[in-house]
Write a structure and sequence with these properties.
The chain is mainly alpha-helical. It has helices at about 25-45, 50-60, 60-85, 90-105, 110-120, 125-160, 160-175, 180-185, 190-200, 205-220, and strands spanning about 5-10, 10-15. Strand 1 and strand 2 form a beta hairpin. Pfam families: Hemerythrin.
């Protein structure tokens, strides 16, 4: 069943409960974290009487957002989309959807670089900074909604569980060196129940390190204030 997704501010609202065959919980948690940060980025960019480009570039939160978004998209490009495309090769409409989801990635990294370049330009950067942030917010939000409304249902329909687990394992391997920041970033703002459910998807030793060390350390940092 393909869920109908409504975007209400920063939140994803599903009109009906959807039970996937594959475990999509970490993917959805990551999407929620990206949306959470997009709201903050847009708020910084809209600050009046300040230098939003400099503020954004100085914030650890911006660096984490970029790093974890790029790792996520490159893992999908390297591992997920090729096997999905192979799985749906006999269905032109499904193949077109897989191609479209991958193509949407191609505009995101250049936009991240353009936002940084505008923020670093003391002469004319402010003239394009706000528009670039708006474009980033719009394009990434649209991609996340498209992936949730159509892409996850296609993945759930077409991919064997072994291939989905392979993607998840490689995705996790690429993030492991940054686990002490990635997990608190991913889970920041989660309700106690959502936090419990998501932590169950991680190896026990990582969940323990999160609770005892990483989450408290992260909570003590203002990752969006570079000053």
């Amino acid at each position: 069943m393909t869920p109908r997704v409504i975007l209400a501010g920063r939140h994803r609202v599903l009109e009906e409960d959807v039970e996937y065959r594959l475990d999509m919980s970490v993917m959805l948690a990551l999407h929620d974290a990206l949306r959470r940060d997009l709201v903050i980025v847009a708020r910084i960019a809209a600050r009046p009487g300040d230098d939003p480009g400099t503020l954004l570039r100085a914030a650890l939160g911006w660096e984490l957002f970029k790093k974890f978004l790029v790792v996520h998209h490159r893992a999908e490009d390297d591992i997920l989309w090729p096997v999905l495309r192979e799985a749906v090769a006999g269905h032109p409409d499904r193949l077109a959807l897989a191609d479209a989801l991958e193509a949407e990635h191609s505009v995101i990294e250049p936009l991240l670089a353009a936002v940084d370049a505008a923020g670093a330009d003391p002469d004319h950067g402010h003239e394009r900074f706000g528009d670039l942030v708006d474009e980033l917010v719009g394009k990434l939000t649209t991609h996340l909604a498209h992936e949730e409304a159509d892409g996850l249902a296609l993945i759930d329909l077409a991919l064997p569980e072994q291939q989905w687990q392979r993607f998840g394992a490689e995705h996790g391997r690429r993030l492991l060196p940054d686990a002490a920041l990635y997990m608190p970033w991913l889970l920041d703002g989660k309700s106690p129940e959502a936090l419990r459910q998501t932590l169950e998807r991680f190896p026990p030793h990582l969940a323990t390190a999160f609770r005892e060390q990483w989450a408290p350390a992260y909570a003590g940092r203002d990752v969006w204030n570079g000053r």
